[in-house]
Amino acid sequence: MVSSEFGIPKIVLNPRRFEGQVAVITGSAQGIGQVVATLFAEQGARVVLLDINIEKLEEVKRTLVGRGLEALFEVCDLTDEDQVHRTVDAIVKLNGRIDIFAHVAGIYPAKPLLETTTLEYRKIFQVNMDSCFFLTQAVLPYMQKRGYGRIINTASTTIVKPEPGLSVYVASKSAVAGFTKATATEAGPGVTANCVSPTLTVTETTLGFEHTSAAFEPYVNLQCVKRSCLPQDVAHAIMYLASPEAEFITGQVFGIGGGSFFA
């Protein structure tokens, strides 16, 4: 955790920062996505939780609504093109708009290249990249029509600092980063597209994998900031990119690695 003993100023949230805005967050049933959704809600946005796990979605929504915050959810298989378009259309029909779209959902498998099957390869690309394509195609027309929107996708620091066992994962996240840059060139006035690129982040999922839970200490040793990356670190970067203040920033990949690399 971030400690106040080092004189780090307290983070102060503005409960009206995203007031009146609709923020759609994928992967929001748990992990980084849940923290992102919570921060948006705490700052006045109506959040739409998007995930495939209905039980956890209901739990997150119940928690947020119980605090007096605005939250809805939609169950969606992000690898299903038709389902993605139907879900986005339904969100706009119900809420009238989508101001912010943060795509956090993804999978992080580790397997040596020569042991990876074609089926596994395709699954990783379906979840990490195909979903990004489907969602952007579904969301972007609504943003372009209104002349305002913020698209934030999620890559990984491994795209500039690959590791053994992550060849297909790195390829999929590199595709997301490149796709986001290209999206920015077609987004149009008032609509930006950017990408956050986190290092290994402390979540229930990463702590549950033997290959990742053992990697936190070596990661920290390589960083300038000597602590592990937390979901809040990623979420606060997304908050900035989603804000009106970031209107002059588009097509960028923001490294969130504690100084483990310098692009």
Describe the structure.
- This protein has 263 residues and is of the alpha/beta class.
- The protein has helices at residues 31-42, 54-66, 81-95, 118-146, 167-186, 204-208, 210-213, 216-222, 231-242; strands at 22-26, 46-51, 71-75, 100-103, 149-154, 191-198, 253-256.
- A seven-stranded parallel sheet has the order 3-2-1-4-5-6-7, sandwiched between helices.
- Helix 3 runs parallel beside helix 4 (118-146).
- The longest helix has 29 residues, at 118-146.
- It is globular, with a radius of gyration of 18 Å.
- The two termini are 26 Å apart.
- The model has no long low-confidence stretch (mean pLDDT 93).
- GO terms for molecular function: oxidoreductase activity.
In brief:
Helices cover 44% and strands 14% of the residues.
Give short descriptive properties of this protein:
Sc_DH/Rdtase_CS, alpha/beta, 263 residues
